[in-house]
Specification:
The protein has 136 residues and is mainly beta. The chain has one helix spanning 61-68; strands spanning 2-7, 14-22, 28-32, 37-41, 46-47, 90-91, 97-98, 104-106, 115-118, 124-128, 133-135. The strands form three sheets. A five-stranded antiparallel beta sheet has the order 4-3-2-1-5, with no helix packed on it. The protein has a four-stranded antiparallel beta sheet with strand order 8-11-10-9, with no helix packed on it. A two-stranded antiparallel sheet has the order 6-7. A hairpin with a 4-residue loop joins strand 10 (124-128) and strand 11 (133-135). The longest helix is centred in the middle third of the chain and has 8 residues, at 61-68. The radius of gyration is 16 Å and the shape is globular.
Length: 136
């Protein structure tokens, strides 16, 4: 579940995405997080950073917004710092701290590690094996 930029075969535009599955031919199932749809994308149409998008290709405006948005100070980290996830939580009605998901993507038969990652837009992606889902 890695954040990426992927080129949609529908319109040839590059969008923010999350790789949710990788296939034997090196293509991947990409969830386009700004629009809520998924598509199988060829390996050559998936990149990590906007600088890897070929010059002249069309790029979704949300990609530019993510790249130009400043990351909140609590999310900035170097190899010697840790991200303080509790600073992002809010108290629930029961007094317990909660992190609210903006979006949830269900994944059938989720295998492998579970965890939390900070996405390029400063949101969190939480992988939950018990619920077979990724929440953003």
């Amino acid at each position: 579940n890695d954040a990426c930029l992927a080129k949609s075969s529908e319109d040839g535009v590059w969008y923010n995405g999350i790789v949710t599955d990788v296939y034997g031919d090196r293509s991947a199932l990409v969830y386009f997080m700004d629009y809520g749809n998924s598509e199988r994308v060829e390996a050559g149409h998936i990149v990590k950073v906007v600088e890897c998008i070929p010059n002249g290709d069309r790029v979704d405006p949300n990609v530019q917004q993510v790249m130009s948005r400043k990351i909140a100070p609590t999310l900035q980290s170097t190899s010697s710092e840790k991200v303080n996830f509790l600073s992002l939580a809010t108290p629930g009605e029961d007094g317990l701290l909660t992190l609210t998901a903006k979006e949830t993507l269900s994944i059938k038969d989720l295998k492998g590690p579970i965890g939390v990652t900070v996405l390029a837009d400063s949101s969190l992606a939480v992988v939950c094996r018990g619920a077979n889902s990724v929440s953003r």
